């Protein structure tokens, strides 16, 4: 199972579904990536992949301003799902490989 590539994410929020794009690359055995929502792409930090489990954090421009988001989820084939954490609470997200 590979997590590398481009992912189209849907983040459920109190303001409705928000779209984002997650890019993940394997650079010499280390995963790196960017997250882009309504603004410019920002680097993904603390990106960890263990089996089908995925976790990372990133700053993102949102309809309510710039927020720190923390993601944890699972990848199964060309889909991912889980929760993301904000200062307003935890919410569900889904993703499909682009």
Describe it.
By secondary structure, the chain is mostly beta strands. The chain has a single domain, classed as Lipocalin (Beta Barrel). The chain is built from no helices and nine strands. It has strands at residues 5-11, 18-27, 30-36, 42-43, 45-50, 53-62, 65-76, 79-86, 89-97. Strands 4-3-2-1-9-8-7-6-5 form a nine-stranded antiparallel β-sheet, with no helix packed on it. Strand 3 (30-36) and strand 4 (42-43) form a beta hairpin. The radius of gyration is 12 Å and the shape is globular. The model has no long low-confidence stretch (mean pLDDT 92).
Q: Please tell me what the overall shape is.
A: globular
Quickly count the helices: 0
Strand adjacency order, main sheet = 4-3-2-1-9-8-7-6-5
**CATH-assigned fold name:** Lipocalin
Short description:
The chain has 98 residues and is mainly β.
